[in-house]
Amino acid sequence: MTDPNQWSTENRKCAFNSQYFTSGSGGFGGYSGFTDTRLNALSAQRIRELKPTSVLEIGCARGQVLWYLENAGIPCRGLDVSSHAYLTRVTNSVQEWDITQTPWPFKNGQFDVCFSHQVLELIPEKSLRAVLSEIHRVSRRGLHAIEFAGVTPEAAKVQCIRESAAWWNTAIRKAGDTPQGIREFSEFGSGTVQMMWNTGPIKINCGCGYEMFRANWANADISPLTDYAEQNRYIFVPGDVSDYIPVHKDSTTVILASHLIHELEPVAAERFLSECRRALMAGGRLRVSVPDAGKLREMAERQELGAFDDVSMAVATAVTQEEKLDRLLGDTRLSEYTKDSLPAILKKVGFPSVKIANFRESSSTHIQTETYDTLADLSLFVEARKAAL
Fold first, then answer.
1. Which domain holds residue 259?
2. Inside any domain, residue 60
3. Which residue from 20, 35, 103, 296 has the fewest beta carbons nearer than 10 Å?
4. Residue 365 lies in a domain
């Protein structure tokens, strides 16, 4: 079915799949690398200017705008139809839900501000009035960025409505009485990204890939990501930090290593963790995440790994549970870790305090408020603290 105005919920789930969010090659348009770009930070800044007491984002994707707002102390919720977006969420405020299915699971006036970004124009015309009515029902005001014209051929494949600002303002006013602001999408892409937290000592994000952080984090990776980092205002340190972290001993407050060490040989992984201990100052914290090999192998035995098909097309196209397991653990992995083995290695290299951590929960304020976790449901998160003086 090619007409997005005729799509069912299942059609929309298929359209907004992992390819849509990662490569744009799924046939329905999409993003070229759906990461935390400056647009998310700019959108959060514009919402914060409204001084909201709570926010609902519809079509929230992975929840990266919500993550910024939550770290500013604003209660948030988000809805998105994509199973991939939910499985790769960066906050537990994301809920998998097709917003064309009304009523939404919220009370009347539950939210101060309803926000959407390139979402309303993707709503089928037959469902638009009901969606706009729900916006008025659950929120007291709103802000919505819509692409009125100039969409790319790829984006046009999922766009249902192409109308002017005047048309949209009329449609929203007819649906209810709460003030809902309409903005041109391009307005949200201009401006200067502000630092949202105090900076302080250098913090290191090892093996960052495109998952980079601001607030004075040094994002390090062997991949050539300098242009991406400059464009989106990140500090980037090119190079392989798995063997040596280029900082003085006892100089770093926190280190993050997300989905990195399973791509190293066991000896190299142990050497890297020792290097983290060297770089951390007394009392400094290290957070490590890896695919949870114990959990995933147990799920494979129960034939349950299909729950992760929407993580990526590689997992979805795997035929057997063994193939799915192999891809979830990482095609390039050189080691595996469980909730028993990873803490044991951290203690072996000299971290006296090691504990299993929950998704989006950290004993470090820097990690809690300035970074986000990924792959919540298939990952193991462990935090280690260097001995205090």
1. 203-292+337-385
2. yes
3. 103
4. yes
The H or E element that residue 355 is part of is: strand 353-357
Count H helices, E strands: the chain? 15, 13
**Distance between CA atoms of 355 and 346, rounded to whole angstroms?**
10
CA–CA separation, 133 and 138 (whole Å): 9
What is the C-alpha to C-alpha distance for residues 382 and 328, in angstroms, rounded to an integer?
19
Question: Under a CB-based contact definition with an 8 Å cutoff, are residues 48 and 74 in contact?
Answer: yes
For every one of its 389 residues, what pLDDT tens digit does the chain have, with 9 covering 90 and above? 578 888 999 999 988 888 887 764 444 444 444 567 778 888 998 999 999 999 999 999 999 999 999 988 999 999 999 999 999 999 999 999 999 999 999 999 999 999 999 899 999 999 999 999 999 999 999 999 998 866 666 667 788 998 889 999 999 999 999 999 998 887 776 676 654 444 456 899 999 999 999 888 999 999 999 999 998 889 999 989 888 888 888 989 999 999 999 999 999 999 999 999 999 999 999 999 999 999 999 999 999 999 999 999 999 999 999 999 999 999 889 999 999 999 999 999 999 999 999 999 999 999 999 999 999 999 999 999 999 87
CATH at 51: 3.40.50.150
**Both tokens of residue 355?**
């504990």
Residues 244 and 372 in one domain: yes
The gap from C-alpha 247 to its chain's centroid, in whole angstroms, comes to 28
Same domain, yes or no: 256 and 152: no
- In angstroms, how far is CA 17 from the centroid of its own chain? 15
One-letter amino acid for residue 304 of the chain = E
Task: Name the pairing type of β-strands 139-146 and 180-184.
Answer: parallel
**269 contacts 342 by C-beta, under 8 angstroms:** no
Same domain, 217 and 350: yes
Task: Single out the residue of 184, 194, 337 nearest to residue 264, CA to CA.
Answer: 337
In terms of domains, do 158 and 216 share one?
Answer: no
Q: Which two tokens stand for residue 281?
A: 């100052």
Pair 79, 134 in one domain = yes
